[in-house]
Amino acid sequence: MKLQEIADRVGGEIVGDPDIEITGVAGIREARPGDITFFANPRYEAHLRSTDASAIILSKNGVEAGSGRTLLISPNPYLAFLRVIELFAPRDYEKPRGIHATAVIGKNVTIGQSVTIGPHAVVEDDAAIGEGTRILPNSYVGFRARIGRDCLIYPNVTIREDSEIGDRVILHSGAVIGSDGFGFTKNGPRHMKIPQIGRVVIGDDVEIGANTTIDRATVGTTRIGKGTKIDNLVQIAHNAVVGENTIIVAQVGISGSTEIGDNVTLAGQAGIVGHIRIGDNVKVGAQAGVTKSVPPNTAVSGYPAREHSLSRKIYASITRLPDLIRRLAFLERRVNVLEGKPAGDPPIENGEEGDEE
Amino acid sequence: MKLQEIADRVGGEIVGDPDIEITGVAGIREARPGDITFFANPRYEAHLRSTDASAIILSKNGVEAGSGRTLLISPNPYLAFLRVIELFAPRDYEKPRGIHATAVIGKNVTIGQSVTIGPHAVVEDDAAIGEGTRILPNSYVGFRARIGRDCLIYPNVTIREDSEIGDRVILHSGAVIGSDGFGFTKNGPRHMKIPQIGRVVIGDDVEIGANTTIDRATVGTTRIGKGTKIDNLVQIAHNAVVGENTIIVAQVGISGSTEIGDNVTLAGQAGIVGHIRIGDNVKVGAQAGVTKSVPPNTAVSGYPAREHSLSRKIYASITRLPDLIRRLAFLERRVNVLEGKPAGDPPIENGEEGDEE
Amino acid sequence: MKLQEIADRVGGEIVGDPDIEITGVAGIREARPGDITFFANPRYEAHLRSTDASAIILSKNGVEAGSGRTLLISPNPYLAFLRVIELFAPRDYEKPRGIHATAVIGKNVTIGQSVTIGPHAVVEDDAAIGEGTRILPNSYVGFRARIGRDCLIYPNVTIREDSEIGDRVILHSGAVIGSDGFGFTKNGPRHMKIPQIGRVVIGDDVEIGANTTIDRATVGTTRIGKGTKIDNLVQIAHNAVVGENTIIVAQVGISGSTEIGDNVTLAGQAGIVGHIRIGDNVKVGAQAGVTKSVPPNTAVSGYPAREHSLSRKIYASITRLPDLIRRLAFLERRVNVLEGKPAGDPPIENGEEGDEE
Q: What pTM was computed for the model?
C-alpha cells in the first residue's frame, strides 16, 4: 500500500515521498524497512532518527526532530496509528467460528447471529448471547446471564448468573464477573454468610482486564458505566457504582457501595474505602489510600489521600524530617542558654533510635 | 407469603399490618411494591422514607426514622434479612446435577452422594469429593485432593494435588489452592527452585474469594482455620497459618511462614511480612505494612504499621509538616537575633524544593 | 535409604550414625521418626531440639545448636534439601501422559516428543509445543504461540496468541500471558482502544506465579529475561522489559514500558511507575512506590521510594512528629517571652485536630 493511500484512509499530511510502498506496521524500535511506525514519546527521540521504518506517524511537534525522514503528520498520531494497525494487522482467527462441538450450551439459551462459542466453553440455561459476540475457549457464562452484541470474552473468563453485559464489551482472560460480594454478619464468634442475591451490570464499550474481579451486589446492582476501561487485577466490591469513561489502572481496589463518577482516573494500586463518593473528573494518584469522599474535578494522592498539591508538599517535607529534628533540638539548647539554664542534652543526631526496625 | 408468616419463620416484631402480602425481597433502593427490604446503614435513612418496599426489616434504632412504614423489628436485621432471602431467592440451578458427561474423572476417585461435577471439570486420580459438594464447570481437582461435604467450587477454580478442604467451604471462581510456594536458593547467579512438597489444608466453613491464591507449603502445611473468610485477589504464601473466624479483605498479601491468629481482621491491601505473628483479635488497617509481630487485641495501621491511635496521630501531624518547617525557620531567625547574630537567611517558604518530583 | 547413601548423592558431612535408615523427608515441625529434615532459620532453633526427625540437614552455623542429633552438614543446606526432596518425593503423576482425548488441538500445530496435553486443554492453530512440555487441564494456548521444551503449564493458564515461551518455564494456574496492554487514546470524552499488536517473550527457566498477568506490547515486545522468578498476582504492563535472574514478589505492579535490570529484587506489593529504568542488582522494599529511575546496586523503599537508609531514617523520624509539634510550640512561647511578648496560646497538645479522620 502506498503511503498516499494510507494518508487518504487515516488522514494526515505527508512530508517526503507519498509513493513509497508500506508493507507493515511496527514499533519504532522493532520496525524494519517497509514498515510504518509511530512516534509520540519525546523519550524515544533518538529512535526517531535511528529507526529502520520507511515512514513515521507523528504530530506537528515532532516534525523538526524527524527532519530528513518520511513523515505522516497527524493531529492525533495515536488515533492515526490505531487506524493503520487495523489496515495491516491480520486477525483472521477473529472471524466468527460458530459453536464448537465441545461447547456445552444449556436449555433455553438465546444465541444471536455470527456468534462464536469456543471449545469447552459452557453457557448455562436461559443465558443470552448477542449477535457477533465471541466466547473463547474454557469460558463460563452463568444462568440467565445476558451478553450484548459484538463482545469479546477471552479464554478462562467466568461470568456468573444474572450478570448483564452491554455491547462491544471486552473481558480479558481470568476476569470474574458476578462473584459473591464479601458480606457476613456475626452470630457469636462465627461469621454467617449474607447471601449475595444482587447482580453486576456492565455498560457498552467497557473493557475489563485479566484476572479482575467484580462482585455482584448483596441486593441490587454493582454497576460499571459505559465506556469505562478497567486494567488487570482490579477488585470492585459489591454494590460499587462506577461511572462512564472512567479509567481504573491495575491492582486498584474499590470497596463496597462506593460510587465513582464519570471521567475519573484511578492510578495503579490505589485503594478506595467503602461508602464514599469520588466525583466526576477526579484523579487519584498511584497507591493512594482514599478514606473520604472526593469532590469533582480534584486530584488527590498519598496516604491518607489529600489534595494532590498539598500531598506533594507534605511528601517533600518528610524528606527533611531528620534534619528538622536536629535543628529543633539545637534550638532548644540555644533557648535554654538564653533563658540562663544549662544547655541540656546534646541534640539527638538522627531518627535511628525510633521504633522503626 | 404474609408478613406474619415471615415473622414467624425469621423472628421479629411487626409494626403495622401483619397481613400484607410479600412477594419478593430486594435492596432498599431497588425494592418495588410487594417486596420486603432491609435497613441498617444510617446513611440510607432517606431511602427508608422513599423506598417502594411494602415492609422493612430494621433494628429498634431505626423504628423512629421508619415511622409510618410497615416494619419488622429484629435484634439482628442482617440475620433476619438473610433468612428472608433464603425464603424467597430461587436457586433451583443449585440443585445436585450429577456428573456431567464431559467431566473427566480419574482413577480411584471417591465421590459422595448428591455430588455435582459440572461440564469440563477435571478430577484427577485418587481425589475424594464429599457428599453434596458441587464442582462447577471448568474447575480442576488435583491428584489426591480431598474435598469435604457440601462445598461449592465455582467455575474455573484450581485445586492442586494433595490439598485438603473441609466441609461447607466455598471457593470462588479463579481461586488457586496449592500453587507452589515461592522458594528459591541461589546457585551462583541463578535461582534454583526449591520443590514445594507441602500442601494446603482449609478448615470447615471457610470462604475464599475470586482469584485468590493460597500457596502450598515448602514442606508441611499452609493452613486456613475454620470459619475464616477471605475476599478476592488475596495472596497467602507458603507455610502461612491463618487462625479461625478471621476476616481477610481484598488484595491483602500475607508472606511466608507468618501466623495470623483467630478473629483477626486484615483490611484491604494490607501487607504482612514473613515469619511474624499477628495475635488473636488484631485489627490491621487498610494498606498497612506490618513489619513485625503484633500482640493480641491491638489495632495497627499505617506504613510501617504502628498502634492505630499513634498512627492516626502521626498521619494527622504529617499534614502540618510544611507549616512546621516554616515555623522552625522563623524561630531560628528570632533566636539568632536574641543571641545578637544576624537573623540569617529568610525562612524556606515550603517543602517544594524537596526531592519529590 | 541409609543416611550415608544420601550424603553420597547430595554431598555433606555426617555427624552421628551414617547407617540409620531414612524413609522420608518432611519439615522440621512435621517430621516423624525415619524422616530427614532441614534447619536454616534461627527462629526455629527450638524445633531443632524437639523435632522427631531422624536426621537434620544444616549448615556449620547450626552444628552447636544441633549437638546430640544426627546431622548432615552442608555448605548450602537448602540445595542439599532440594536434592533430598528429589530423591524421596514421589511425583509419578508428572510422567508424560500424551494428548488427552478431550483436548482440542488446532490445525498445523507442532508437538514435540513426550508432550502431555491434559483434558479440556485447547491449543489453537499454528502453535508449537516443545519436547517434554506438559500442558495441564483446562489451559489455553493461543494461535501461533510457541512454547519451548520441558515447560510445565498448570491448569487454567491462558497463553494468548503469538506469545513465545522459552525452555523449562513454569506457569502457575490462572496466569495470563499476552493479555492486551492497557492503552487508549481520547476521542472527545471517549477512550478509543489502541490495538495491542505486540507480543510477550519469556526466557528460559522463568517461573510465573498463580493469577499473575503479563500484558502483550502495544507494538514490539513485553519481555521477561531468563531465570527470572515471578510470584503470584503480579501485574506486568505492556512493553515492560524485565532482565535476568530477577525476583518479583507477590502483588507487585510494573507499569508500561518500564525496564527492570538483572538480579533485581522487587518485594511484595511494590509499585513501579511507567517509562523508568530500575538498574541491575537493585532492591525495592515491600509496598514501595517507585516514581523515578533507580541506579544499579542501590536499595530503595518507602513512598515515594528513596534510598533505603534515608527512607528508614525518615520513617523513624515520623514517629516523633507529634512530640516535635509539641516541642516547637513550647519553644515558640519561650522565644516570645525572651523577646518580651506575651507567651501566646498554649502549645497544641497533639495532632488530633488534623484533617485525618
A: 0.90
In angstroms, the separation between the Cα of residue B312 and the nearest Cα of chain A is 10
The CATH H-level (homologous superfamily) assignment of domain B3-90 is: MurE/MurF, N-terminal domain (3.40.1390.10)
Active site residue B172: no
Average pLDDT over residues B44-60: 91
As a whole number of angstroms, the distance between CA C153 and CA A169 comes to 29
The closest CB to that of C102, out of B104, B180, B182, belongs to B104
Gap from B263 CA to chain C (nearest CA, Å): 24
Closest CA to C59 of C80, C30, C43, C44: C80
Residue ranges, CATH 3.40.1390.10, chain C: 3-89
What per-residue confidence (pLDDT) applies to B91? 64
Using CB atoms, pick whichever of B120, B176, B237 lies closest to residue C211: B176
Q: CATH for A3-89, among 1.20.1050.10, 1.10.520.10, 3.40.1390.10, 1.10.1040.10? A: 3.40.1390.10
Instruction: Determine whether the interchain pair C355/A306 forms a contact, defined as Cβ–Cβ distance below 8 Å.
Output: yes
Confidence at residue A208, expressed as pLDDT on a 0 to 100 scale:
98
- Residue B356 confidence (pLDDT) above 60: no
The Cα B325–Cα C356 span in angstroms is 20
Q: What pLDDT does A179 receive?
A: 98
Q: What is the average pLDDT across A239-267? A: 98
- Nearest CA-CA partner of B216 in C22, C135, C172: C172
Where exactly does CATH 3.40.1390.10 map onto chain B?
3-90
- Single out the residue of B212, B206, B242, B249 nearest to residue B227, CA to CA: B206
Indicate the burial class of C35 (C-beta count within 10 angstroms; 0-12, 13-18, 19 or more): buried
Arch. (CATH architecture) of B104-310: 3 Solenoid (2.160)
Based on C-alpha coordinates, what's the Rg of chain B?
A: 28
Tens of pLDDT, residue by residue over A207-220, are 999 999 999 998 88
Q: How far apart are CA C257 and CA A30, in angstroms?
A: 14
> In CATH, which of 2.160.10.10, 3.40.50.150, 3.30.1340.30, 3.30.930.10 is domain C104-308?
2.160.10.10
Phi, psi of B326 (to 5 degrees): -60, -45
Q: Is B162 on the interface with C (CB under 8 A)?
A: no
Q: Which residues of chain C have pLDDT under 50?
A: 347-357
Residue A299: strand, helix, or coil: strand
Is residue A65 over pLDDT 70? yes
What integer pLDDT is reported at residue B63 of this predicted model? 86
Question: Is-contact A120 C122, C-beta < 8 A?
Answer: yes
The mean pLDDT of B295-307, rounded to a whole number, is 97
Contact yes or no for A174/A157 (Cβ under 8 A): yes
Distance (Å, whole) CA B133 – CA B127: 13
The closest alpha carbon to A50, from A69, A34, A63, belongs to A69
Q: CATH 2.160.10.10 occupies which residues in chain C?
A: 104-308
Task: Calculate how close chain B gets to A191, using CA atoms only, in Å.
Answer: 7
Residue-wise pLDDT for C144-201, tens only, equals 999 999 999 999 999 999 999 999 999 999 999 999 999 998 888 899 888 888 999 9
Give CA torsion, residues C141, C147, C151, C155, to 10 deg: -10
Number of H helices, E strands in chain C: 5, 37
- Using the Cβ of C323 and the Cβ atoms of chain A, whether some distance falls under 8 Å is answered with no
Q: What is the mean pLDDT of residues A81-102?
A: 81
Percent of chain C scoring above 90 in pLDDT? 69
Yes or no, beta carbons of B352 and A219 under 8 Å apart:
no
Confirm or reject contact between A331 and chain B (CB < 8 A): yes
pLDDT for residue C168? 97
The residues, any chain, with a CB within 8 Å of residue B8's CB and separated by 6 or more, are none
Interface of A with B in 15-44 (CB under 8 A): none
